[in-house]
Amino acid sequence: MLLDTPSLYFRAFYGIPESMTAPDGMPVNAVRGLIDMIATLVKAHRPTHLVAAMDADWRPAFRVAAIPSYKAHRVASGDEEEIPDTLAPQVPVIEQVLAAVGIASFGVEGYEADDVIGTLTVTSSQPVEIVTGDRDLFQLVDDEKRRRVLYTVRGIRNLQTVDEAWVTAKYGIPGRAYADFATLRGDPSDGLPGVAGIGEKTAASLITRFGSLDALLAAVGDEGFPAGARNKLEAARDYLAVAPAVVRVAHDVPIPSGSFEVPAKPHDAEALIALADRYGLDSPLNRLLAVLGKS
Prior knowledge:
Layout: E1 2-4, H1 5-15, H2 29-45, E2 51-53, H3 61-66, E3 75-77, E4 80-81, H4 90-101, E5 104-106, H5 113-123, E6 128-132, E7 147-151, E8 160-162, H6 164-171, H7 178-185, H8 200-210, H9 213-218, H10 227-235, H11 237-247, H12 269-279, H13 282-292
Parallel strand pairs: 1-2, 1-6, 2-5, 6-7
Antiparallel strand pairs: 3-4, 7-8
Helix pairs in contact: 1-2, 2-4, 2-13, 4-12, 7-8, 7-11
């Protein structure tokens, strides 16, 4: 099981009141919410291995170099991500809690959590479940290799299972074609413009007809190719030359060595007790540890 941790702690932050505080008054709603999410997931799915992927770089240079607008609207100052003032101090606490529990958690310099997840997914010899609220990771579903997304759009207790059939039913495209489809359509939430004049329905129709973005672009000059689409694609040649490398998650991130097995007991019980006392986390941590002990 691979956790898109930033997606989950943002969801926890906005879903749980900030009145949930530590003894010193610091909001810990994201921390508590994430701990309870992990407990719920482990109890329901019983993974043998678990990784909480983090953003070491939320706006990687290679993506910005290709498309400068990538996530530009989320920049607060310099190159820092705009993040609520009461969430920012909770992220280091989340990292400390995961380390003390013994759940593998890391980011890789120059890459997003999505890229860590992409690499772990394609290199795994086991079935993979990806927990996320980010549609970008739909590109990793693969029925043959038993890779699927558990989508949090309806909540952590009512996850939408996303496989190839679901992608096809939802978007009208081949089940493994989400990245090509998203490249054409664009994504304003990530600052990706897409091809001007080609919306979701047209993008789906073109990808379904030609099978992939590469095949579509190879066929643009063919007789009988839709003239309207040809003009739009030709006008977007520069964008289409670089966008796939931005939209597709990396498959070659250097993953640190270590055990990704679900821990049966805390890695550092003393540190965990200190964190529980300082931030008032006894109840959620006891729930998590009880579930892990039964894994």
